[in-house]
Design goal:
Elements lengths: L2 H17 L3 H4 L10 H9 L6 H10 L4 H10 L6 H9 L14 H18 L7 H13 L5 H4 L4 E4 L4 E3 L4 E4 L1 H8 L12 H10 L1
Parallel strand pairs: 1-3
Antiparallel strand pairs: 1-2
Helix pairs in contact: 1-6, 1-7, 3-6, 3-7, 7-8, 8-10
């Protein structure tokens, strides 16, 4: 599996999609609490070409609070308009810096989840390529920022369209894209799953 190539394809798909958005859609709320569509895109590019040194400097400006780190990074790109955001993304289709870690896996999964964060509230569904989902699901379980291992604790998740499962406990079944978004802690998506485990996740995530 060429993860860097998958990341490039995902980012290219995201840029294509963004180019078709209206000004009102750019200002719409995303699934990321408190962030508009334009904020999510700014976040996607805000770690591009930034290495460990930049991360430490940002962490210091965030007063060593992990919860504030993304806001500090996002603020550095808040001056870009929507066309500049898309142009920046297109100039960085291959992940660089922090997003290039794990062979581009960080950039791939970050772009995939955030594209869904944008598409779902806008009512713009898509079919996510299977190979990207197969990489993203186990990644989301173990990646510390996503907390998938914690979000889905005590439940067995089953992706019915991908022959993928993980965990122990009552089952929560659904499409792989919905399972991924539940692992990422997205409120409301657990209602798309079925089974006794889905009830647990709905109470936990909303």
């Amino acid at each position: 599996m060429n993860v860097m190539a998958l990341a490039r394809q995902e980012r290219s798909d995201l840029a294509d999609f963004l180019e078709g958005l209206t000004p009102d859609q750019w200002e719409a709320e995303s699934l990321c609490r408190g962030w508009r569509v334009r904020d999510v895109v700014g976040h996607v590019i805000s770690y591009e070409a930034h290495g460990s040194g930049d991360l430490l400097r940002r962490f210091a400006r965030a007063r060593f609070r992990f919860g504030a780190l993304n806001e500090v990074a996002l603020a550095e790109y808040a001056h870009l308009d929507t066309r500049q955001l898309v142009a920046f993304l297109r100039s960085h289709l291959d992940p660089r810096g922090s997003t290039a870690r794990l062979g581009g896996g960080v950039g791939l999964v970050d772009a995939l989840i955030h594209q869904q964060d944008i598409r779902r509230p806008l009512g713009k569904p898509r079919i996510v390529p299977e190979e990207r989902l197969r990489y993203a699901l186990p990644f989301a379980v173990t990646a510390p920022p996503l907390r998938g291992f914690w979000n889905a604790r005590g439940v067995r998740l089953v992706a019915t369209d991908l022959d993928w499962s993980r965990g122990k406990g009552p089952e929560a079944r659904g499409k792989a894209e919905a399972v991924l978004m539940v692992l990422a802690g997205r409120a409301g998506v657990a209602h798309e799953l079925t089974g006794p485990g889905a009830d647990v996740l709905q109470r936990r995530l909303g």
